[in-house]
Amino acid sequence: MHTNTPRYSPAQILMHWLMAVLIIAAFAFGRYVDSLPLSPTKFRLISYHKWLGISILALLVLRVLLRLAKRAPALPASMGPVARLAAHGGHAALYLLMLVIPVSGWLMSSAYGIPVVLFGVLPLPDLLAANPELAEQLKAVHGLLNNALLLVVIGHVLAALKHQFIDKDGLLERMRPGR
Question: What is the structure's pLDDT at 3?
Answer without folding.
Answer: 56
